[in-house]
Amino acid sequence: MAEYDRVVRGGTVVTGTDSMRADIGIRAGRIAAIGESLSGTDVVDAGGLLVLPGGVDTHCHIEQLRDGGDADEESFETGSRSCLAGGTTSVVTFSNQFKGRDILTPLADYRRRAARGAMVDYGFHQIITDPTDAVVHEQIPQIVAEGIRSLKVFLTYDPLHLDDRQYLRVLAAARRTGALVTVHCENYEAIRWRTEALLADGRTAPKYHAWSRPPVIEREATHRAIALAELVDQPIQIFHVSCEEVAEEVARAQARGVKVWAETCPQYFVLTAADMDRPGFEGAKFMCSPAPRDTAEHARMWEVIRRGTLDVVSSDHSGWNFEGPRGKRVNGAEASFRDIPNGVPGLAARLPLMFSEGVAAGRIDVNHFVRLVATNPAKLFGLHPRKGSIAIGADADLVLWDPAKQVTLTNALMQQAIDYTPYEGRTVTGWPVATLLRGQVVMRDGRVQAEPGSGQFLARGPYGMIRPRGVLPDGFDAARSA
Ligand code: URP
Ligand code: ZN
Ligand code: ZN
Question: Where are the domains of the chain?
């Protein structure tokens, strides 16, 4: 009699630390054995392939609610399809707050949408744009207790940005409740000031997006975000670091023992500011914040990855189409860079791009790749050991990966709702040929077969990694009474 429901046989199993030839035995959706000559009711042949933990994307915008009742073009169903096509099995997406309003009402709506459509497992970050007394003292404690254990704040963007006092209030609320704070770091006033000057000078094209926010603007906000987190003794993650000079701010704080982590995204390894200078409106396809830099910066970013300063690579997948009245042209085809929505799609491209540029190009080893796209994000966001690794008892979320397969990226291969990929025509080495979620084969040779609503909500309880250090100036814990 077969010992396991399913066996993945004959592959090279890769974790964040080891690679070994082994079979994986799956029982009731979990990894029950890693060994030799395992027998299963069903056998998935992994001969010649790598067997990786399912990707964990802890920063992606899927079906995010927009003010006025609309949501992103990328729904939980289409976003899940794209994730599975690209080897990602868990996501952490964003529930929004609209200024002047509560966080509970949109969260309830968002949870319903995810429960209806998701085909990957999912958790949420809660965006805080208006930290009123009710939000920080009543609503944040309530949602953290429900398993939404990370808060997201923006230090720029109208109408999302927080000033320093508001940011401190969110840090304090997170400290009191045991949540992680994630931060979009760019200086709001400096961007406004430069943008006004650029527009007054007639510089309106998409390429001036990068001119409006040079690296120093990201570096200043990163320094401030870390300093204020240090003041409160609250762990944070810096989102989407685009360049070495920003990573250096993170490294300096890490060297002091501050609990600060930082993610980056594939766009900062393959896109450049010059892409935004493509003819006509085409440059809008490459507009995201922080802005892509240049090819010399890509090389410096790989150094930062190798040093371990940046330990998570997420997609920052954005839900804006290129064509149509709700996408990048929402303010018209003649809109200035200020009025073009930011963000690039990348759910399915994340693993292939980072494997190709990282492992196939010889810049990192495959274990480091696994740490960046699966193990580290799972650990930082309280999903490990259930997610992000290949270990006894973990969910059997696996990707069978062909390390030699060359694929030229097209938007059709991304299997997303968004109508373009900024990586169109780029050839990658390394490709997912099958994806398993909790032991079920949900993608094989590009065909996704999963039921909308089959994704599970990942409630995240307390965990040690994000516990404050207990290091406060003067020992006074202002968060207790703030
Ligand atoms: O340009 C970006 N990154 N758009 C998505 C929203 C965000 O800033 O994370
Ligand atoms: Zn951001
Ligand atoms: Zn984002």
Answer: 4-53+388-417+427-446, 55-369
Nearest CA to ligand 1 atom 2: 343
Strands 55-57 and 88-95, by their bridges, are parallel
**Ligand 1 pocket, 318 CB below 6 A?**
yes
Where are the extended beta strands (E) located within 336-439?
A: 398-408, 427-437
- The domain at 4-53+388-417+427-446 falls in which architecture? Roll (2.30)
Question: Given the structure tokens 């500011």, which residue do they identify?
Answer: 273
Alpha-carbon dihedral sign for residues 88, 400, 271, 241: positive
**Phi, psi at residue 354, to the nearest 5°?**
-70, -35
What pLDDT was estimated at residue 481? Answer: 83
- 429 C-beta closer than 6 A to ligand 1: no
Write the pLDDT tens digit of every residue in 251-304: 999 999 999 999 999 999 999 999 999 999 999 999 999 999 999 999 999 999
In the structure, what pLDDT confidence band is assigned to residue 1 with cuts at 50, 70 and 90?
low
- Distance from the Cα of residue 358 to its chain's centroid: 18
Q: What ligand has the least distance to the C-alpha of 185?
A: 2
- Decide if 33 contacts 392 (C-beta within 8 A): yes
| DSSP assignments along 35-81, one per residue | ESS--EEEEEE-TTSEEEEPEEE-SB--S-B-TTS-B-SS-HHHHHH
Residue with CA closest to ligand 1 atom 8: 289
The CATH class that applies to domain 55-369 reads alpha beta
Tokens matching residue 350: 């994340």
Cut 0.90: pTM above it:
yes
Q: What is the pLDDT of residue 263?
A: 98
Closest CA to 439 of 29, 31, 25, 8: 29
Distance 156 CA to ligand 3 centre (A): 12
- Name the amino acid, one letter, at 312: V
Q: Find out whether the beta carbon of 93 lies less than 6 Å from any atom of ligand 1.
A: no
pLDDT at 48: 98
Mean pLDDT for the stretch of residues 316-342: 94
Which H or E run contains 88? strand 88-95
